[in-house]
Amino acid sequence: MIWHTLANLTKILPGEASHQLAVGALSVGLHPRYNPVKLPTMVGGLYFANPVGLAAGFDKNAAAISGCFALGFGSVEIGTVTPLPQPGNPKPRVFRLPEDEAFINRYGFNGDGMEAVATRLLKYRKIKTAEHIIGVNIGANKDSENKIEDYFMACLRLAGLADYITINISSPNTSGLRNLQKSASLREIIKSVKRALTQAGLLKPIFIKLAPDLSSKDLFSAIEVMVNEGIASVIISNTTLARDNLKNKKNRDQVGGLSGAPLFRLSSEKLSEAYAFAGGQISFIGVGGVRSVADAYTKILLGADLVQLYSSLALSGPHIANHINTNLTKLCLGEGIRDLSEVRGSFSSFDKAHRHAEHAVKTHLKPE
Question: Is residue 171 flagged as an active site residue?
């Protein structure tokens, strides 16, 4: 099949070229199609048909939403979208670390801007089904003199075309952006986004994406602000600046955010910390290094209502979302649970959760 050839091409082309090829193929229908797996979850008052979503960063400009859903994702988060178009950081800015099953990127919010994205979202909504949950991840322009106002403008323009809005204050590739995770700035951004929703006459759930590199103190402060402000869900986590125990020597010291397998433990441990601190007052989405059903199940056992992935789509191929969803359904049957909420947050230790998930996979799923 032609999509199989394209999938193989994405593994040998330079990182950014392969990303562009994948988005282009999905935008014109050159992709497999899977029947959607039903494993419903409610987050922020929204019905997610299944718990596996596509993380922001893949479809930055809402160019391939239909194709992404055809791969079996229960939700697709586009962006990050900024008010004005911008080229992002100089190329090259995407680097493979194959020995580590990882990538480093320093894209820097390259994108077409909110007006172009709004046009595509409006066109998509004419064919959108109720079960296709669209998130719009918004950010600030690199040279903006008022980054908080950028979030207001992006939300005002795009919220009416989205099911939920994600505030991205955790990319490491825009100077000063991660400082907005501090309590005072975070409150101002949330108020700005709420003001935009009020002005637009909309009620939409707000999600916020955090960095995995926050100290426990800063993580808990951010969670406390979000709970007090009525934020619907926390996405943990964005890429990391850490470079611990990487095997790749060629690219490991590149500037940018590290994603993929090395992020899995760190992001999962931060998720577990945040879930324990929040005490059920807010929901969580686990992202970072999800490559398998055991990885996804681990995030859920540590407190995630939903999971997202991106790097493993590039590393494993277009079947990954359908594969994980299908096998999560089988795990529910094998574990004797009606839905995943029954086991969400049942472990506080990453090692114990991951061992349980791997044991469940070996026990209840046939080896491939």
Answer: yes
